[in-house]
Recover the amino acids of this structure.
């Protein structure tokens, strides 16, 4: 087992996972960044880039408003890239079909990220109460430490989500690959299109602007004509 | 009484604003985080029991968009400076905070999550479709230049203008800007989609005119999504259908 690679990817998972909510929010948590970053660390940038492209649009419009927790596309992106690069070379699988299968397996496991994120936020409620208690008692020395404990909760949630996706996803891939890899490989390139196209369809359906469909269709048709002419 | 806040304290507040949501919780949301961001300022202005009182003023409910929070906390700094100097009372900032948190959150959500983030993604995906490793770099630049500018200037705006900061932000007409960004995103996505399909058609030596067949498929998928079919289910169904079609055709 390539433990070092899994550990390195786990560190990327934690860093990008913190960016989702707890720290920075500079969007290194978006699949288009998180997946290539994981790929870069594991020595296969192009696989990461391809997975980032496939994942980016799927849950892009599920925004973190107030208490709403979107599916954890960060850990799905990092986990799927790890599955493809690490397990792919371990079992000698590669190509678009394996990438698609890894994503299909990893995506439902993103649910774990939602639960763990929820758990971290519930744990943080205790920190808030504790902060209010110590402050009421006239002690202000531990407030900053309590705040950073919250960050630790989020980091822990991200790491566990990554481990769930890589372990259960790896197990799933191990059993599913022999059955599904051949037909998926035949359809390979087309299947890679399915992800961004579904993402675009979901985005168009949820965008609250008038003319979204008209603008999209016009742009699509013009671009197709231009590409056809050249 | 200290009057002017040193630059290093403002800079520390700016840096701490990146950790505003570190202890996000269901009780007070960013409450403890807001106090964490304000701590260097409050420590500078107040000592002893005054400091405890100041801390208590900032440990309440706090919930707004993280990128607009610095301007609101800048107003808080302006207000605390007033208290430290012996002017201003303790209930008007709380009322102001209650009043602006929700509109700031709505504006920030629409502009950054609804407008800028999809636009940056659409631009980056065009590069990624050509397998360019610069795609993530472009995404981060397009998103973060406005993001960092907004945090920094928001903080200064709040510090300088105090309670008038909201008027300046209102004049920026951010919701209108968000709509423009969304329109740009949709146009880019049209081009991206056509480009992606053309690559695949080209790789299989098929006529580009087949791309037109994809448009009704996208409408159908969008309709299903609107009817409440989850993204995950949508992807599974389309992958299964595509695989079966190709298995039968070849």
């Amino acid at each position: 087992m390539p433990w070092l690679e899994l550990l390195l990817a786990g560190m990327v998972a934690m860093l990008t996972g913190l960016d989702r909510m707890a720290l920075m929010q500079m969007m290194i948590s978006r699949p288009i960044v998180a997946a290539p970053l994981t790929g870069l660390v594991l020595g296969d940038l192009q696989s990461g880039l391809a997975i980032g492209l496939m994942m980016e649009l799927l849950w892009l419009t599920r925004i973190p408003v107030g208490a709403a927790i979107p599916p954890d596309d960060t850990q799905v992106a990092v986990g799927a890239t790890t599955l493809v690069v690490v397990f792919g070379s371990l079992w000698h699988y590669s190509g678009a079909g394996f990438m698609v299968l890894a994503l299909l397996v990893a995506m439902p496991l993103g649910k774990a990220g939602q639960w763990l994120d929820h758990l971290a936020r519930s744990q943080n409620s205790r920190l808030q109460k504790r902060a209010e208690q110590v402050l009421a008692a006239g002690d202000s020395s531990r407030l900053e430490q309590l705040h950073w404990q919250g960050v630790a909760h989020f980091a822990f949630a991200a790491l566990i989500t990554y481990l769930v996706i890589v372990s259960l996803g790896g197990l799933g891939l191990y059993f599913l690959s022999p059955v599904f890899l051949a037909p998926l490989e035949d359809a390979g390139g087309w299947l890679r299109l399915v992800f961004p196209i579904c993402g675009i369809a979901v985005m168009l359906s949820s965008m609250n602007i008038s003319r979204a469909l008209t603008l999209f269709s016009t742009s699509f048709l013009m671009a197709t004509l231009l590409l056809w002419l050249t | 009484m200290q009057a002017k806040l040193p630059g290093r304290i403002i800079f520390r507040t700016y840096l701490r604003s990146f950790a505003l949501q570190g202890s996000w919780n269901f009780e007070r949301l960013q409450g403890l985080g807001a106090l964490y961001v304000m701590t260097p300022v409050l420590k500078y202005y107040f000592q002893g029991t005054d400091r405890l009182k100041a801390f208590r003023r900032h440990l309440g409910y706090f919930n707004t968009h993280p990128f607009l929070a610095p301007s609101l906390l800048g107003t808080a700094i302006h207000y605390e400076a007033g208290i430290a100097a012996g002017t201003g009372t303790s209930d008007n900032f709380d009322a102001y905070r209650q009043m602006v948190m929700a509109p700031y959150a709505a504006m920030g959500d629409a502009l950054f999550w609804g407008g800028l983030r999809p636009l940056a993604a659409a631009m980056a995906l065009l590069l990624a479709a050509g397998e360019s490793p610069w795609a993530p770099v472009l995404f981060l630049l397009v998103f973060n230049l406005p993001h960092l500018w907004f945090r920094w200037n928001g903080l200064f705006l709040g510090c300088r203008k105090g309670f008038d900061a909201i008027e300046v932000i209102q004049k920026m007409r951010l919701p209108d800007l968000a709509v423009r960004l969304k329109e740009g995103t949709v146009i880019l996505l049209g081009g991206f989609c056509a480009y992606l399909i053309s690559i695949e058609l080209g790789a299989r030596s098929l006529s580009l005119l087949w791309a037109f067949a994809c448009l009704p498929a996208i409408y159908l998928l969008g309709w299903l999504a609107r009817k409440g079919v989850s993204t995950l289910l949508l992807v599974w169904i389309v992958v299964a259908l595509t695989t079966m079609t190709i298995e039968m055709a070849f």
